[in-house]
């Protein structure tokens, strides 16, 4: 088994390799002055089971292209099997035709990965779970729920009777419901209207949050608009302490500024991307989760146990 890291998130790749008790495979991954990616595997991987760790987070196009080049290099070096380990799957929000004459880019990415030579994909918390069906190869779809819930209960919330799980929009109800079921708590929903890509108007709460601690859950946040707008409405409706838990904290400077001004006490997110940091951010490691999944894939054993809380 060989673990190879791209340049998107080398620390996560190193942590996963450490969990497995393996060194990272010796590989040169660099960029020419004109922006072209170049990869050279500097040790033999002939007949090896290769796992390439590369979330396709911003800069998305560069990281995706680099992953494709790495896959081609590994395939031509005669690896026996190639697994693309993508903790964050870029372009996942472009999963359907919601307007005339627009692409389904998440399907295009699936085609590109398969054409490049990927035999299997390991990812986590896709924006839409049905993206697994875009692939003609096996996809192992992990969830961060157990990791985030463990951190929440260990550090912040001990009284589950006073906790309410909140979906910050209608589209996230299914995800929030899974959190509520696992914690045995009530569910509430914030109704919102999106004004632009970065502006959101949250205007109503469905459910009782008065005097309750709440945790808003979502698959990802980038600008923080949805979470911060929802938090303001929850506070108006009498919520006590407000937390947020997201799988992918693709945070930009705007998000960190909004968090600083919002009533959100802490934002819990995985380290699936390197942008998950800030004064109010708790980054929870998913390296043990992915290491166990990689070991199970290598051993051809089940990954079902990784979904248990």
Automatic annotation (TrEMBL):
Catalytic activity, EC: 2.7.6.1
Single Gene Ontology BP annotation: purine nucleotide biosynthetic process
Co-factor(s): Mg(2+)
Alphabetically ordered keywords of this record: ATP-binding, Cytoplasm, Kinase, Magnesium, Metal-binding, Nucleotide biosynthesis, Nucleotide-binding, Transferase
Record's catalysed reaction(s): D-ribose 5-phosphate + ATP = 5-phospho-alpha-D-ribose 1-diphosphate + AMP + H(+)
Residues noted as binding Mg(2+) in the record, renumbered to the chain: 127, 169
Subcellular location: Cytoplasm
Signal sequence region: none
Biological or metabolic pathway of the protein: Metabolic intermediate biosynthesis; 5-phospho-alpha-D-ribose 1-diphosphate biosynthesis; 5-phospho-alpha-D-ribose 1-diphosphate from D-ribose 5-phosphate (route I): step 1/1
Function: Involved in the biosynthesis of the central metabolite phospho-alpha-D-ribosyl-1-pyrophosphate (PRPP) via the transfer of pyrophosphoryl group from ATP to 1-hydroxyl of ribose-5-phosphate (Rib-5-P).
Record's subunit section: Homohexamer.
Family that this chain belongs to: Belongs to the ribose-phosphate pyrophosphokinase family. Class I subfamily.
Protein name: Ribose-phosphate pyrophosphokinase
Organism this protein belongs to: Candidatus Akkermansia intestinigallinarum
Organism lineage: Bacteria, Pseudomonadati, Verrucomicrobiota, Verrucomicrobiia, Verrucomicrobiales
